């Protein structure tokens, strides 16, 4: 059933209007009116409703949300898209980081602030997320947060670069007295994904009477790892395996890999042919000793494949990689804060605050296997990978020569060199992200000569160490497979010395720093028809630095197949802004802002903003709107001394090597059977046999000092409607266009440019220099430089544009208290009608709204009801997210349309779709015990699990928001808070 928030809203409004007519609300007691600063404006005001759209999430909202961390809370917001970076995995260069993306414009277009000031970015480089501007939201202690304000329009004129899509501003508590201790625990209904949190807050001193207040807090959080084998009850595993069978893929949790610790060994031919390259064929000789029976073909495993006609050789030892696959990584987080306020006089307060945190995320990886393919003595290479210099490194397969201590043919009648398909099961491989953050602020606020001013010095730093344990070294492995062998022995449990002889922990250390000094002030100016005009001005000087340094083995390429990233740079920024609030008429306010900035490494930028709010019917109807220009300076990693090594795939179209692939038959011109990659360089899958789905290609991504800043234009227009004191409705339309987008050149574009002009683009294509892989002409002569493509060179560049637009809506209804208690209703959501993208000048415009390319569902909404009476409160929340259409030609349902129909996978015009989400959350609280508050919640009560990748069936393997707590299905949490008097 589709979620229809409009119909529900109208029905509830009608009921409440009737109740209001029967029972007038009691007169509100007069309250002290205090001027506050609202995100999106530097002018203090008594009215929180500005021309800009600002959503406020209070500390009470956070407690009653049912979410275990801030990341989950924000990602549930309708304006936050699925492209936000989650900290549930430790597998990337920015692993263990949680960053927010608004409107589908990426974390690099969303500015995260604390009390209106910046944080340092994570010291890492990743071409997929944030592009060098990532700020982790989970480093902020929850207990220190007074509220979170989400500004949903462009704000570069107020805050500067990175605020193109909006702002997430954490407003921390300014003063606190007392002691409060709390804790929570949660897991899914099977006990998986357990998380625990303990927090303490304290404060003493009265700023009014004692002239000081000091307060602080400590949050400690732990999350268990979650393996996919703990989620077999989530989704429909049987249906997924039926789908796998139709695709020729082995069932989940089946020992599918021929790479085992008790390795399978093979003959090594002088050249590969179709007959001797089959790992289950004539080249199989046997298995190293001690393979467990349940992993041995002919004992625990049948000789025939359960999904095809393939026959496995008796005695072959296999390995279950699914047993190691993790859905969510283990994490430990500690965050602390301390703030001191000193009242110097009635008009001046000095303050200083310190925040520190450490987040350690550990993900277990499957033990390493060098290759699952056979090689020949003429070309024994099993892996290749690039260096930043453009050279290609390679590693030979594990071929044990005659006389090697671990060669199983020693002492037989026919000793021979053998290739071993081996898995380093005794070399633990974890991926660890260790993120340390610190932020110090010292400042003074007060009133002087009619100005409200705030001046502060901020130092913010984030240190990130990405560690990959037990990475196999080429130098160590080559020694281990040499004739004399080494301390490491294949097929036997090795001691610490043996493991250290072939492996090391790979480390990439990064650091991001921001040091800023700013002064800002606001004051009323002169009388206008609608009241006092006001203005704000500010100056800022900021130094930013970013570095990421791979260890020595990374730099010389000794980790087999492992690539790193590096950057080093510093920039200075000087900027100033001015903002005007003009009440031109009694019910009409105009806002204008202008900001100029100078960056030492790319130049100047000027942005502006105009807004208005017209109270068409005072206290009942207001119309508001904004128009703004924005920019984003290229990050240090994009224009400085940087490189990123990566692997790249493309499922939108097939990429072929024009030199080595016949464009008609789509067959490689090479006689080597393993060279399928020639006709499928980037892992295209639609209609491709599973044996030819080649995966990703190594790429070298270089910085581009000629980059220009991204620019944007944005606009909002909407209204606020309050027909009674108990009903508030807001509807706001929004539009964003980001131009000169900074992107990494796509691998498919590199290949297509090379196809169009091989001579002019050959420097971007790195080919194999081993002549054993070269093609031959009709006369049998080698064709020079005709080896397979091993890597591509890509670069950052300014591309065309993205346009996105839609509607935000929010309805709040507060029923009058009666004998049944108090009831509140809230409906909020976002409809994204447009997400258009044009990358190249020659590219067509792509329409990605509601598709897997934008990760922006058409509709994302929630409806919530809150009830309270005496010491009890309860709430229920219904969440809806539309499914996503797959707009790529690789959608699996297109490769087997009959199967898709049988399994009930929706498709339209050749596109496949994922299921949408309709989940129900419940919560309850009690505060009847003195000083004690108890809360409990259950999310996804019905255990729905349909939000899986387009063209796939419901299963935890295909959930389209991977490494997040929603993967757990139904989950519960309980919490308690005790306040000391």
Describe how the helices and strands are arranged.
Elements: H1 5-22, E1 54-58, H2 59-63, H3 70-75, E2 110-114, E3 117-118, E4 145-151, H4 156-159, E5 166-172, E6 178-188, E7 195-204, E8 212-223, E9 226-227, H5 237-246, E10 264-267, E11 284-287, E12 326-328, E13 330-345, E14 348-364, E15 381-386, E16 392-396, E17 399-400, E18 418-421, E19 430-448, E20 451-472, H6 474-480, H7 496-502, E21 503-528, E22 531-550, H8 552-556, E23 565-585, E24 588-599, E25 603-617, E26 621-632, H9 636-639, E27 641-648, E28 697-702, E29 710-724, E30 727-739, E31 742-744, H10 747-756, H11 758-761, E32 765-767, E33 789-798, E34 801-814, E35 822-838, E36 846-847, E37 859-869, E38 872-881, E39 885-886, H12 892-895, H13 897-903, E40 907-908, E41 911-913, E42 917-926, E43 932-939, E44 971-980
Parallel strand pairs: 2-5, 28-33
Antiparallel strand pairs: 1-4, 2-3, 4-5, 6-7, 6-44, 7-8, 8-13, 9-12, 10-11, 10-18, 13-14, 14-19, 15-16, 17-18, 19-20, 20-21, 21-22, 22-23, 23-24, 23-27, 24-25, 25-26, 26-29, 27-28, 29-30, 30-34, 31-33, 32-33, 34-35, 35-36, 35-37, 37-38, 38-42, 39-41, 40-41, 42-43, 43-44
């Amino acid at each position: 059933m589709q979620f229809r928030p409009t119909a529900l809203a109208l029905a509830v409004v009608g009921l409440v209007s009737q109740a209001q007519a029967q029972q007038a609300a009691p007169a509100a007691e007069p309250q002290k009116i205090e001027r506050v600063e609202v995100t999106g404006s530097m002018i203090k005001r008594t009215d929180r409703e500005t021309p800009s759209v600002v959503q406020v999430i209070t500390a009470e909202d956070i407690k009653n949300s049912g979410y275990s961390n801030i990341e989950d809370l924000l990602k549930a917001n309708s304006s936050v898209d699925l492209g936000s970076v989650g900290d549930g995995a430790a597998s990337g260069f920015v692993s263990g980081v949680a960053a927010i993306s608004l409107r589908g414009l990426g974390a690099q277009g969303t500015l995260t602030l604390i009390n209106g000031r910046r944080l340092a970015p994570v010291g890492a480089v990743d071409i997929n997320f944030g592009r060098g501007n990532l700020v982790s939201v989970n480093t902020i202690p929850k207990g220190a947060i007074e509220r979170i304000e989400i500004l949903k329009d462009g704000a570069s004129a107020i805050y500067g670069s990175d605020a193109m899509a909006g702002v997430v501003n954490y407003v921390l508590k300014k003063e606190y007295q007392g002691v409060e201790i709390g804790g929570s625990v949660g897991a899914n209904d099977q006990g998986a994904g357990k998380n625990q949190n303990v927090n303490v807050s304290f404060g003493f001193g009265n700023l009014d009477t004692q002239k000081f207040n000091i307060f602080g807090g400590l949050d400690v959080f732990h999350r268990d790892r979650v393996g996919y084998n703990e989620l077999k009850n989530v989704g429909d595993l049987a249906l997924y395996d039926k789908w796998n069978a139709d695709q020729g893929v082995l069932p989940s949790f089946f020992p599918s890999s021929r790479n085992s610790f008790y390795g399978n060994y093979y003959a090594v031919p002088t050249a590969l042919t179709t007959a001797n390259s089959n790992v289950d064929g004539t080249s199989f000789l046997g298995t190293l000793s001690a393979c467990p029976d349940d992993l041995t073909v002919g004992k625990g495993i049948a000789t025939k494949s359960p999904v095809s006609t393939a026959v496995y050789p008796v005695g072959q030892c296999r390995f279950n990689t699914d047993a190691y696959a993790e859905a969510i990584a283990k994490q430990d987080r500690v965050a602390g804060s301390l703030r001191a306020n000193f009242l110097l006089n009635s008009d001046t307060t000095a303050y200083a605050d310190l925040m520190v945190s450490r987040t350690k995320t550990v993900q277990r990886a499957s033990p390493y296997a060098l290759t699952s393919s056979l090689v020949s003595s003429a070309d024994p290479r099993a892996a290749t990978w690039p260096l930043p210099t453009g050279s290609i490194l390679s590693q030979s397969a594990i071929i044990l020569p005659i006389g090697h201590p671990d060669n199983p043919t020693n002492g037989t009648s026919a000793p021979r060199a053998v290739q071993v398909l081996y898995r380093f099961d005794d070399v633990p491989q974890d991926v660890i992200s260790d993120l340390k953050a610190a932020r110090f602020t010292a400042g003074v606020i007060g009133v002087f000569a009619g100005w409200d001013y705030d001046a502060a010095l901020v130092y913010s730093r984030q240190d990130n160490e990405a560690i990959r344990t037990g990475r196999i070294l080429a130098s160590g492995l080559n020694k281990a497979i040499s004739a004399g062998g080494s301390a490491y022995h294949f097929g036997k449990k090795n001691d610490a010395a043996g493991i250290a002889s072939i492996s090391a922990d790979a480390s990439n250390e990064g650091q991001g720093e921001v040091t800023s000094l700013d002064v800002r002030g606001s004051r009323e100016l002169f009388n206008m028809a609608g009241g006092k005009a006001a203005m704000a001005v500010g100056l800022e000087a900021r130094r930013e630095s970013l570095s990421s340094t791979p260890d020595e083995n990374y730099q010389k390429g000794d980790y087999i197949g492992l690539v790193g990233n590096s950057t080093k740079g510093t920039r200075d920024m000087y900027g100033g802004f001015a903002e005007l609030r003009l009440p031109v008429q009694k019910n009409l306010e105009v806002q204008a802002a202008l900001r100029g900035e100078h960056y030492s490494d790319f130049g100047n930028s000027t942005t502006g903003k105009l807004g208005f709010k017209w109270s068409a019917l005072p206290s009942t109807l207001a119309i508001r709107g904004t128009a703004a220009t924005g920019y984003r300076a290229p990050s240090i990693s994009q224009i400085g001394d940087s490189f990123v090594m990566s692997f790249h795939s493309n499922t939108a179209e097939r990429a072929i090597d024009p030199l080595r692939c016949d464009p008609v038959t789509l067959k490689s011109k090479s006689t080597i059977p393993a060279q399928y990659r020639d006709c499928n360089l980037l892992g295209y899958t639609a209609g491709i046999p599973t044996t030819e789905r080649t995966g990703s290609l190594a790429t070298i991504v270089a910085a581009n000092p000629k980059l220009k800043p991204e620019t944007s234009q944005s606009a909002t227009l909407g209204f606020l409607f309050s027909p009674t004191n108990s009903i508030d409705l807001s509807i706001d339309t929004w539009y964003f266009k980001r131009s000169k987008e900074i992107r990494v050149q796509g691998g498919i574009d590199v290949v297509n440019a090379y196809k169009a002009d091989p001579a002019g683009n050959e420097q971007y294509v790195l080919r194999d220099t081993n002549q054993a892989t070269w093609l031959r002409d009709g006369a049998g002569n080698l064709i020079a430089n005709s080896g397979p493509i091993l890597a591509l060179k890509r670069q950052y560049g300014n591309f065309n544009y993205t346009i996105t637009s839609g509607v935000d809506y929010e309805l709040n209804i507060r029923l009058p208290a009666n004998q049944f208690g108090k009831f509140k209703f809230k409906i909020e959501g976002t409809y994204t009608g447009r997400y258009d993208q044009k990358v190249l000048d020659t590219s067509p415009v792509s329409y990605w709204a509601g598709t897997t390319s934008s990760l922006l569902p058409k509709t994302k909404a929630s409806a919530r009801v809150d009830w309270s009476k005496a010491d009890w409160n309860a709430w229920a929340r219904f969440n809806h997210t539309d499914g996503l259409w797959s707009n790529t030609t690789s959608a699996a349902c297109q490769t087997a349309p009959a199967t898709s129909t049988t399994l009930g996978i929706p498709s339209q015009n050749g596109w496949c779709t994922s299921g949408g989400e309709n989940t129900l959350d419940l919560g309850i609280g009690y505060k009847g015990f003195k000083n004690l508050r108890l809360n409990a919640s259950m999310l996804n009560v019905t255990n729905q699990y349909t939000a899986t990748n387009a063209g796939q069936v419901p299963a935890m393997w295909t959930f389209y928001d991977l490494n997040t707590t929603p993967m757990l299905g139904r989950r519960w949490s309980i919490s308690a808070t005790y306040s000391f008097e």
